[in-house]
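Case study.
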Amino acid sequence: GENVEQHPSTLSVQEGDSAVIKCTYSDSASNYFPWYKQELGKRPQLIIDIRSNVGEKKDQRIAVTLNKTAKHFSLHITETQPEDSAVYFCAARDSGNTPLVFGKGTRLSVIA
Amino acid sequence: EPEVTQTPSHQVTQMGQEVILRCVPISNHLYFYWYRQILGQKVEFLVSFYNNEISEKSEIFDDQFSVERPDGSNFTLKIRSTKLEDSAMYFCASSRENYGYTFGSGTRLTVV
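After joint prediction, the assembly is written out as follows.
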């Protein structure tokens, strides 16, 4: 089955700087790669996702890039703000109806 | 915005007791999932449900666990003979296709 590795486990950045979180996956058949943000004690919330037919997707300050050859994808947050502080999880899914497999999460702290 | 609703928000149970966690998925969604998250760890897949039957289950989802969709709206997770290590946050999720999961707010299960 799919295995997702996520790095780093913790990340601290100054407000206004960029943050990058990276994930690798094992199954070359995986075709869907979402990112979730989880604030303390709350549910994971989908913030952006990408499918394997595109290499990059942007939504305001958030972007995701996908390199299918290398089997890795990354989350980029620009102009970070204190409210971006949370745990971010990447995930990947095999083709068909298999469920999402999550990475271990990255705790992002944005220091004002 | 439609939400996935979970009840109760917190459940405390004695070791060996049975618990039922309840979820109301988004009404036009077709895929339903249970995940769990032990404190500070990643989100782990338990089971997925589609077309009124289990479509996938993980190694965690052994004979102690069962799921049901007793009517057109509810989706339940039953844990028989609970153990201390079952203590975790249990998240229900649903999706219309097998993309873009929406998570519920979770049930924190504490086994004492």
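Observations recorded in class. The radius of gyration of chain B is 13 Å. The CA atoms of residues 46 and 61 of chain B lie 6 Å apart. We will return to this complex in the next lecture.
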